[in-house]
Amino acid sequence: MNTTDIERLYNLLPAFYRVRDKKEGEPLRALLAVIETEIHAIEKDIEGLYDNWFIETCEEWVVPYIGDLMGVRNLHDIGSAGFSQRAYVANTLVYRRRKGIASVIEQLAWDVTGWHARVVEFFHLLATTQNLNHVLPANTTLSLHDADGLDLLGGAFERAAHTVDVRRKDKNGGRYNIPNIGIFLWRLKSYSVTRSTAKYVGSTSEDQYAWYTFSPLGYDAPLFNQPQTRRDITHMAEEVNVPDMLRRRALREDLEKYHEANTNGKVKPDSHYFGDTPALAVFADGLEIRPEFLMICNLNKWKEPGWKPPEYVMQVAVDPVLGRLVFLTGPQPTSVEVSYSYGFSGDMGGGPYERELIEIGQEKDVWEKTVSRQDKMSKPDADYDSLSKALIDWADPENGNKSNAIITITDNGTYEVNNNTTVDLLADRFLVIQANSGNRPALRIVDDEGNVATLDISGGEGSDAILILSGLLIEGCIDVTGKCLKLVQIVHCTLVPAFSPSVNVTYKNIKIEIDHSITGPLCMPAEIKGLRVLDSIIDSPDREQYAISDGNDGSGPSTTIERTTVFGKVHVKELTDASNVIFTDTVTVDHRQQNCVRYSFVPDGSQTPRRYRCQPDLEIAKQVEDEEKRAQAENTSFDKSKRELIKTKVLSRLVPAFTSTRYGDPGYDQLHTSCPEQIRTGADDGSEMGAFHHLKQPQREANLSTALDEYLRFGLEAGIFYVDVEKEVYTNKKVHEDKEEEL
Q1: Which residue in 216, 196, 222 sits closest to 299, CA to CA?
Q2: Is residue 35 located within the same domain as residue 46?
């Protein structure tokens, strides 16, 4: 909008009024500018009235009203989880025209939950007596020669026939019966990482083969499929359409078809996993290794796979289940990058998802630089290829002189920062080190010998300096000693919990804020201005040690903690607020006379301020009250021993259950389906307690159950099954021991 449009009212005034107004300092012009702003707001609202008639273009607040006109009601609002009911309302007529069809139920599940789904009609998987007039070859015993079918047993894509299962249908019970269908849901999301630095973990004794992991931390972690969009609503979901863990056999067979098509001279070979958007890619010294030079195999023992390719080609063996790769032939590369997808529950910690960049509006002396390790052909606008170089120049008096600075990393590479690097802030200045939205760079803090170390954050006299870290995966520890710092913000970062402590604070005039992050133990004195933790995971590697304290078993600072999971003990001076938190070990608070702990799981033996609707206290009180009423009705006694018996039973049963408690696993900190309902739905809004409260998973499941009542065929019963990767598949202690022994 140009200046003339903005000042329409002022320009309508006769010229002599404008001349006189200018002599008076233009008060009339300022008044009409305010009125003009309101006119533009009204015009914008009027222009949007037409768009709000249609579900495709309407504003988000209009969606429930259009849904009400269509009869779409009784669904929980889960907008805070980044999910909209727009698709569900838009597809309502399509659902009703094809009511009861399995593919429609799949689309329905996706629209109301935001989870990928696969519907299995279990009556098609029943082993039946064959009739010669109507032979059903699929409804027979699975052939032991069908290795792929055996690999899919018990999952959402199995083909084996089963005898009738008459158990009650639930998440873990009966499946294969005539009236039953199963809705398999993928709660884990698939996050795509492009050209991340692979972690070199060693070589064989002959120093012939170089071994790497896809994870930049050197962890074993399964690779995931990046879901491909279904062609239309009648198309049933296949393995390539869901964010599932990649299978060795599926990738190997698909790669063999790719090789065969490529050998036959096909310009663009058909492939599910190595087509336009490949499930994985390997880059050696900046050049991509074509799929015909990849091998899919089991690298469980970190040994050479059985078949050895010709010496004149570079052959790379990849294990998608363990996330490992090895270069078998050709010259060993000096740098290896990988593109792949990994699984996790939600947008938390350092990850390649969209987030707001930190920008400073009206500052004039901001030193803004970008960092990228990519070659100049792909990142011509990067100012530095090393974060250490950027920090050195920032501290150089001839350049930044420690002025206000924003350093943005624009790729997914791994950057080593020596612990001798100076991060020394001046008073009244700020330093922002952030990842570009959609990227996940890794920072490795090392000493002179290359071992993981601690980075010191310091400063001179003063009280107003600010340090902000955003979107980073940090391997190492941070030691905050600066006297001038008033605030350290850690946002959407991961400080790998394997190191203790992740954050150590010695200066007392400072405030620490942690938001949507994963960290190890926090060690800071009780005298600091405060600690604020939101939507995060605090994980002590040694669960018997303190996750939050002063580092010497003494009390930590006054703490506000909301929607967070804490693995380890907690000892703080004061809990100013604690809401929707899961404490897995005892909590000790020195000042308990004020404040409150709300809707949280607090283990028995904890010393906290008064608790409001916390578990297991709430369940114990409820059962005791029920037993007292029953005893009163039956005119029997209810003594202290019965009260203690109830308490013992509740404490033994009502404890958090997680899919995995090991950092690096896809199901890390995810509440297991066997977790008690009091925890899974115990938050203040009916969602789950803990770090993934914002996902609103109970509300999503309730929405699906409500919607199914309308769209299931008569006589059918639907069971909901979560496809969470079994822990034993990717967490095998012996695998890690073998790796250490062989390397």
Answers
A1: 222
A2: yes
Choose the final residue of a domain: 344, 376, 408: 344
DSSP 308: -
Same domain? 24 vs 169 = no
pLDDT level of residue 411 (50, 70, 90 thresholds):
very high
Return the structure tokens found at 306.
């059985």
Q: Are residues 44 and 123 in the same domain?
A: no
What is the distance between the alpha carbons of residues 66 and 351, in angstroms, rounded to a whole number? Answer: 36
The torsion defined by the Cα of 240, 246, 248 and 249, in degrees rounded to 10, comes to -30
- The 10s digit of each residue's pLDDT in 423-465 is 888 777 888 999 999 999 999 999 888 888 888 888 766 667 8
Average pLDDT, the chain: 84
Q: Model-level pTM?
A: 0.86
Question: For residue 497, what are the CA distances in angstroms to 212, 240, 480, 554?
Answer: 22, 33, 18, 21
What pLDDT digit, counting tens, does each position of 597-650 carry? 999 999 999 999 999 999 999 999 999 998 888 888 888 877 778 888 999 999
CB 35 within 8 A of CB 9: yes
Based on the structure, what is the number of domains in the chain?
5
What is the edge-to-edge ordering of all strands in the sheet holding 518-519? 414-418, 442-446, 473-475, 494-495, 518-519, 537-539, 565-567, 582-583
Average of pLDDT values for 167-181?
77
* CA 705/CA 700 separation, integer angstroms: 9
Nearest to 589 by CA among 565, 614, 566, 608: 608
Helices assigned H by DSSP within 654-712: 677-680, 697-711
Same domain, 373 and 417: yes
DSSP labels, 387-406: HHHHHHHHH-TTTTTT-SEE
What is the maximal distance between C-alpha atoms in the chain?
103
Which residue pairs from 39-43 have beta carbons closer than 8 angstroms and sit at least 24 positions apart in sequence? 39/8, 39/9
Residue 135, CA atoms < 13 Å, CB-side half-sphere: 2
CA-based R_g, the chain, Å:
30
Strand residue runs (E) in 367-441: 367-371, 405-409, 414-418, 423-425, 430-435
Q: 339 forms bridges with which residues in the sheet?
A: 281
> Within a domain: residue 104?
yes
Pairing of strands 189-197, 336-344: antiparallel
CA distance 590 to 593: 9
Residues 302 and 740: their CA atoms lie apart, in Å, by: 10
- Angle at CA 285, nearest 5°, toward 284 and 289? 30
* Six token digits for residue 490: 């850690």
Q: Residues near 129 by Cβ (< 8 Å), separated by ≥ 6? A: none
Separation of alpha carbons 642 and 165, rounded Å:
40
Shared-domain flag, residues 314 and 410: no
Is the model more confident about 365 or about 299? 299
Which pLDDT score is estimated for 245?
A: 92
Give me the domain span that covers residue 225: 190-344
* Residue 737 resides in a domain: no
Find, among 422, 512, 491, the residue nearest to 460 by Cα.
422
Contact present, 715 and 626 (Cβ < 8 Å)? no
Are the C-beta atoms of residues 328 and 305 closer than 8 Å to each other? yes
Query: Does some domain include residue 531?
Result: no
Domain boundary among 473, 495, 520: 520
What tokens does 464 get?
A: 């107003």
Same domain, 241 and 153: no
Q: Does the pLDDT at position 584 exceed 90?
A: yes
Say yes or no: 219 and 260 in one domain.
yes
CA 77, CA 405: separation in Å to the nearest integer? Answer: 40
Q: Is residue 586 part of a domain?
A: no
Within a 10 A sphere around the Cβ of 739, how many other Cβ atoms?
Answer: 21
Contact predicate 382/374, CB 8 Å: yes
Residues 281, 386 within the same domain: no
